[in-house]
């Protein structure tokens, strides 16, 4: 296929999508748009609205005006026309709308118009909205328009992220086509192709292989675009318009690779990344500030121009993204992506505000109106902040035992205490006994762990108090939710979510039992279990918690391939070491040390994670076992890692000698 036909086909799809989207409003509007519809049904919890776009919108009762006063059945009737703002067009099966926020923004916009404040914006993620076919009521968003062709000069570099190729927003449709049309001659004249790293190619390939059936119309369109982009990029690479060989195996994600390249070559080139991801935009803006180099990041308009946010605009957009994910967590509908984004953005926005002297943005309420029939401006309640633990704690003094009068058992009454409630619990049936204590059933989906006399220590008590005080909740992690005291008021244990499934030790790590319990599972199912395990570990690492005692007795899996991590009292955090460990999962640096006298590093943790991943996929086989050995795990680890270190050192010397840098497949971007 020629480049010309490839560009024509790919660009034709973009323009066809553009035309279809403008002529037929078949898809629900994006977040920030105002819509008008007719009330279809009313309940005390929500109002469903038919806006004529193939699906209903959902207005939770909290998003109705204050004068509704929690009684939507009395204030509204089926058939009433209602106008609302789109809050979340991708949540669940029904988009979420807000009338209260719409009134608030309208009031703000009217005040801005009276004061002559400009309202121009073309950013779909900015805190504004456009009513289709109606007036603009947006807050002012500052941005700069540049010609991206300037980054095709010989002393500059232009990169493109995955999401740009898969973009389905009609407001930006055709932008990539126009970029290549405008930059074609400059690229060839300077021999400076646009860089699409290997990780982006990998992500596009993975996305293009997804079966679009059963996906939403927008998602199916994005999958289709991924496949079309791969075809175009192959042809564009053949004629020198695109370079897609830059990358390495040390970064699992494209974002990390972009940051690595931008930092390494900032002194050599001025660089620009095209992306829609707010998080990577914040990270690169901070990097440019720290290095005092010209490193830009922005989006393409439909005309092929580069739109770059101001510092204030980017910070506000990042804060809105943080609040969106944090709200999902606070409402109990959050997933691991929400948890990870909140943890990352919390630190990132804090650094950004300090670097650029910015304050946390606030929603400006509308003016108070004496007429009681006018809606009171809605106050946005910030979700409970999720604060990570200290990333560089110092080792705490040695642990000491706690004194106690008695340890409760089955049938005894204990007191639970958490940040939001306290009360009595009766210990139910004994579910199991371990090396540190006993677990009892209680009402609901929770269990109580009571420590035995040898493991009731000050470190465990203070560690549990820290975890309970954070009010952390994450599916698959048995994080302590309350402290448990005996009748004398003494600390004896904690409440935690009840895990389901069975221990790895008794299923995956025993091949016969595994085949008997899960006869239909194959390697791909074991990979799913690895991913589920890594999601939990990733969240804990984002909170600066090290699992430390990773072993098959602390992990459980159910028939749906959901992994649960238990024994949170052994996790390492805030300088409290993990006092236990399993030699098979202990890094060479920790072998021979007393676990309770030292803090494990992230390298120690990743050694255990890698070992666990290998043993999951290989159904219990230890990675360093060899025939003819005596089975001494410690010696096997030391010998194997010693040989690995020698090979790694030799490889690094060879790479340096041949001119490669940091594992990158070429000397420069």
TrEMBL record:
Domain Protein kinase: 425-669
Domain of life from the UniProt record: Bacteria
Record field: compositional bias (Acidic residues): 12-29
Protein name: Protein kinase domain-containing protein
Organism placement in taxonomy: Bacteria, Bacillati, Actinomycetota, Actinomycetes, Micrococcales
Every S1 motif domain range: 32-111
Pfam family, one: Pkinase
Entries under InterPro entries matching the protein: Kinase-like_dom_sf (IPR011009), NA-bd_OB-fold (IPR012340), Prot_kinase_dom (IPR000719), S1_domain (IPR003029)
Stretch list, region Disordered: 1-32, 112-135, 367-400
């Amino acid at each position: 296929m020629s480049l010309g036909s490839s560009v024509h086909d790919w660009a034709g799809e973009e323009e066809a999508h553009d035309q279809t989207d403008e002529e037929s409003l078949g898809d629900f509007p994006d977040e920030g748009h105002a819509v008008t519809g007719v009330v279809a049904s009313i309940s005390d919890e929500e109002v469903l609205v038919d806006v004529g776009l193939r699906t209903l919108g959902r207005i939770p009762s909290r998003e109705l005006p204050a004068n509704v006063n929690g009684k939507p059945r009395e204030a509204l009737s089926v058939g009433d026309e209602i106008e609302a703002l789109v809050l979340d067009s991708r949540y669940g099966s029904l988009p979420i709308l807000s009338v209260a926020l719409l009134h608030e923004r309208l009031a703000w916009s009217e005040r801005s118009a009276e004061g002559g404040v400009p309202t121009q914006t073309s950013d779909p993620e900015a805190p504004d909205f456009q009513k289709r076919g109606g007036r603009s009521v947006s807050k002012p968003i500052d941005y700069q328009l540049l010609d991206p062709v300037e980054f095709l000069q010989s002393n500059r570099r232009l990169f493109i992220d995955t999401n740009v190729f898969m973009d389905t927003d009609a407001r930006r449709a055709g932008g990539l086509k126009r970029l290549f049309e405008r930059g074609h001659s400059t690229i060839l004249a300077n021999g400076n192709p646009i860089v699409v790293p290997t990780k982006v190619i990998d992500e596009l390939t993975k996305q293009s292989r997804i079966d679009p059936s059963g996906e939403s119309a927008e998602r199916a369109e994005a999958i289709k675009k991924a496949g079309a982009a791969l075809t175009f990029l192959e042809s564009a690479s053949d004629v020198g318009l695109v370079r897609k060989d830059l990358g390495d195996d040390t970064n699992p994600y494209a974002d990390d690779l972009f940051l690595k390249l931008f930092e390494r070559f900032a002194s050599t080139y001025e660089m620009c990344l095209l992306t829609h991801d707010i998080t990577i935009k914040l990270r690169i803006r901070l990097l440019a500030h720290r290095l005092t180099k010209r490193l830009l990041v922005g989006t393409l308009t439909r005309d092929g121009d580069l739109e770059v946010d101001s510092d204030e605009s980017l910070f506000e957009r990042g804060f809105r993204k943080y609040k969106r994910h944090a709200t999902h967590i606070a409402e109990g509908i959050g997933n691991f992506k929400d948890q990870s984004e909140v943890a990352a953005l919390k630190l990132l926005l804090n650094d950004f505000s300090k670097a650029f002297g910015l304050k946390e943005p606030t929603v400006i309420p509308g003016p108070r109106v004496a007429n009681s029939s006018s809606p009171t401006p809605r106050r946005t309640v910030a979700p409970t902040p999720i604060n990570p633990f200290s990333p560089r704690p110092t080792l705490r003094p040695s642990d000491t035992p706690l004194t106690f009068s008695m340890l409760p058992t089955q049938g005894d009454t204990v007191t639970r205490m958490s940040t939001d409630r306290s009360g009595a619990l009766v210990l139910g049936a004994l579910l199991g006994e371990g090396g540190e204590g006993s677990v009892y059933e209680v009402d609901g989906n929770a269990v109580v762990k009571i420590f035995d006399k040898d493991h009731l220590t000050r470190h465990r008590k203070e560690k549990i108090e820290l975890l309970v005080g954070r009010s952390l909740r994450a599916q698959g992690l048995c994080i302590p939710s309350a402290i448990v005291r005996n009748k004398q008021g003494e600390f004896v244990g904690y409440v935690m979510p009840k895990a389901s499934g069975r221990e790895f030790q008794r299923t995956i790590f025993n091949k016969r039992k595994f085949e008997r319990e899960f006869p239909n599972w194959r390697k791909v199912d074991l990979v799913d279990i690895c991913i589920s395990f890594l999601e939990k570990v990733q969240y804990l690492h984002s909170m600066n918690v090290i699992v430390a005692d990773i072993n098959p007795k602390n992990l459980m899996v159910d028939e749906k391939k959901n992994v649960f991590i238990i024994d949170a009292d052994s996790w390492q955090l805030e300088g409290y070491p993990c006092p236990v460990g399993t030699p098979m999962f202990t890094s060479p640096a920790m072998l021979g040390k007393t676990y309770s006298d030292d803090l494990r590093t992230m390298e120690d943790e990743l050694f255990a994670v890698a070992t666990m991943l290998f043993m999951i996929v290989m159904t219990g086989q230890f990675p360093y076992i060899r025939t003819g050995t005596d089975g001494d795990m410690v010696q096997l680890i030391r010998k194997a890692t010693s040989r690995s270190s020698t090979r790694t050192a030799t490889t690094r010397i060879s790479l340096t000698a041949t001119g490669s840098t940091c594992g990158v497949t070429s000397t420069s971007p």
